[in-house]
Write a structure and sequence with these properties.
This protein is α/β, with parallel strands linked by helices and 414 residues long. The chain contains 17 helices and ten strands. The protein has a domain of 240 residues: TIM Barrel. The strands form two sheets. Strands 1-10-9-8-7-6-5 form a seven-stranded parallel β-sheet. A three-stranded mixed β-sheet has the order 3-2-4. Strand 8, helix 14 and strand 9 form a beta-alpha-beta unit.
Length: 414
């Protein structure tokens, strides 16, 4: 009978050795699966799980009985529909809510949730702005928060503050928040239960301690919108830089507080707008990289390990990525030239990726085998390489996923 603790510890060590640029006993494999476990198990739909997240247990158990990655996802990528319906989230569509197909993943709907003329408000008091502007605009059932203001509560100012809570719209919003909060706490409790189950049943460490974003993306993705934030670099550069500074400070503090002491140290950064084709090198150097570099460095100094999910191409940005402490960060590449990445980052940072998702979903088995062997031959010598797909896996040919695992486990072993 397998000793699950020994398997668990061996997997953690294998990934840790890769991060520290040592050659492990074999190449680590840590694929980012999204809907694929649902399709593989073929028992429930995406909609089924989003409306009853405990059904994910069956799906992931079937998946982990077949596949054995070195770190694994719990069902966190399947957000519970109950809290989204309760809060009235405006920037999401999912199966059962504006998406008819019950078995495809949800969609993010970008919007301008902070106006161009509101930079000064957000810079001056980001907490007030989030409560009074961003949340009411983002969640249809929390509009009452626009009326709540604690700033002038000193002395008898509290009387006006407290009186606001008699407003029916405010009452309804706080009742909704209480219900939504309980739904999320129940979900977080379930995720903790499943992580314990992963360890006890499969010897599987979780893949993440938490999630993070480049400060520029935090503003561009959820507040201003892509086109707007890219225009702000030219129209309102000082305002944008000032808000980036505000966001960076609280993001670093909150991430360290929330992620420290977890079972694994891995904080996943999802990068969106810093790719070669979205902004010039001068703009990247001025607006995108300094805050991200500070974020990464501070987390490293706090004992955490950033896993930087580099979406798109970073062929022109690779030299910047060396400006963090060596042997402490993982860079996970989508379309970046892996041979070039190894040349620039080899001996400095662990690189991860990038088996083409097109090959996984539509190609032949031998195509996947050949590419995985090329990655191992190119990126593994000297240590510092982890196998992964280029992007999150939804649709895939099982034979091709099997080929990626088999090639890594056999060809990638010493």
């Amino acid at each position: 009978m397998k000793n699950m603790q020994e398997i668990y510890d061996a997997r953690l060590k294998r990934v840790k050795d890769s991060v520290q640029l040592k050659e492990p006993d074999r190449i680590s494999i840590v694929p980012v699966f999204q809907a694929y476990p649902v399709y593989f198990a073929n028992k429930w739909t995406v909609q089924d799980i989003m409306y009853d997240y405990r059904k994910a247990t069956d799906v992931y158990d079937i998946f982990y009985n077949h596949y054995e990655p070195d770190l694994g996802w719990d069902p966190i990528l399947f957000f519970p529909a109950n809290y989204m319906e309760c809060s009235g989230i405006n920037w999401f569509k999912w199966p059962g809510h504006e998406i008819e197909d019950p078995n495809i993943m949800y969609q993010f709907i970008e919007g301008e949730y902070m106006k161009e003329n509101e930079y000064a408000e957000a810079i001056h008091d980001i907490t007030k702005f989030m409560m009074n502007k961003w949340i009411p605009r983002s969640f249809a059932n929390l509009s009452g928060l626009a009326k709540v203001d604690f700033r002038n509560s000193m002395w008898f100012g509290h009387m006006g503050t407290f009186a606001t809570f008699a407003d029916p719209e405010v009452i309804k919003s706080f009742e909704t928040l209480a219900k939504t909060g309980q739904m999320l706490m129940d979900w977080f409790s379930y995720l903790g239960e499943y992580q314990a189950h992963m360890k006890e049943t499969f010897g599987m460490p979780p893949l993440y301690a938490g999630f993070a974003y480049a400060p520029f993306d935090m503003i561009g993705d959820s507040m201003r919108g892509t086109m707007e934030v890219l225009m702000d670099m030219m129209k309102r550069p000082d305002d944008l830089l000032a808000l980036i500074d505000v966001v960076t400070k609280f993001a670093i503090k909150d991430t360290i507080a929330n992620c420290s002491g977890k079972a694994v140290p891995y904080v996943w950064f999802w990068l969106h707008k810093g790719i070669d084709s979205f902004m010039s090198d001068a703009h990247f150097k001025k607006f995108y990289w300094p805050s991200l570099r500070q974020y990464l460095t501070d987390l490293v100094e706090a004992g955490l390990t950033p896993v930087v999910y580099v979406e798109g191409e970073y062929n022109k940005r690779l030299e910047y990525l060396t400006e963090v402490p060596p042997g402490k960060v993982i860079y996970n590449f989508e379309y970046t030239d892996m041979a070039k990445a190894k040349k620039v980052l080899g001996g400095h940072s662990c690189i991860m990726g990038n088996v083409p998702i097109v090959s996984i979903a539509y190609g032949k088995k031998q195509e996947v085998v050949d590419y995985c062997k090329w990655l191992i031959d190119t990126c593994a010598p000297g240590g510092g390489f982890i196998m992964d797909t280029s992007t999150m896996v939804d649709n895939a040919i099982q034979e091709n996923i099997d080929a990626m695992f088999e090639t890594t486990l056999i060809y990638g072993s010493h």
